[in-house]
Amino acid sequence: MAVQALSQKEIEDRLSELPGWTLDGDRLARSYRLPSHFAAAALVVHVAGIQEELDHHSDITLGYHTVALTVNTHSVGGAVTELDFGLARRVEDVAPAHGAH
């Protein structure tokens, strides 16, 4: 099945299941504050591994104690798709183990 852009209602419904994630323009977005720069860098490495496994990649910004992610699906014109929510859910699975809030 081809990847399709989600409607605004579908995006809102899925966001309600992912606390902390928001729609920022045409991208899903989330920031994490961690206890140290090392913990933030470790989270980036874990997210990179997930992205390679899914073959779907976000933009990641590593700060002093922070990690920020934004993602959309380029192959459908930069719209938000189920692929983006799949990545977001996987990131949520590993982020709490790194002290993300």
Distance between the termini: 35 Å
**Coarse shape:** globular
Report the C-alpha radius of gyration, rounded: 13 Å
The SSE string, one letter per element, is HEEHEEH
> Beta-sheet strand percentage?
15-25%
The main sheet orders its strands as 1-2-4-3
Largest sheet: 4 strands, antiparallel
SS elements, strand count = 4
Describe the structure.
Strands 1-2-4-3 form a four-stranded antiparallel sheet. The chain starts with 7 loop residues before the first helix and ends in a 7-residue tail after the last helix. The protein contains three helices and four strands. The protein has 101 residues and is an alpha+beta fold.
List descriptors:
globular, 39% helix, alpha+beta, 101 residues, four-stranded antiparallel sheet, single chain
Offer a concise description of the structure:
This protein is an alpha+beta fold and 101 residues long. 39% of the residues lie in helices and 20% in strands.
Topology at a glance:
Elements lengths: L7 H8 L6 E3 L2 E7 L3 H18 L4 E4 L3 E6 L10 H13 L7
Antiparallel strand pairs: 1-2, 2-4, 3-4
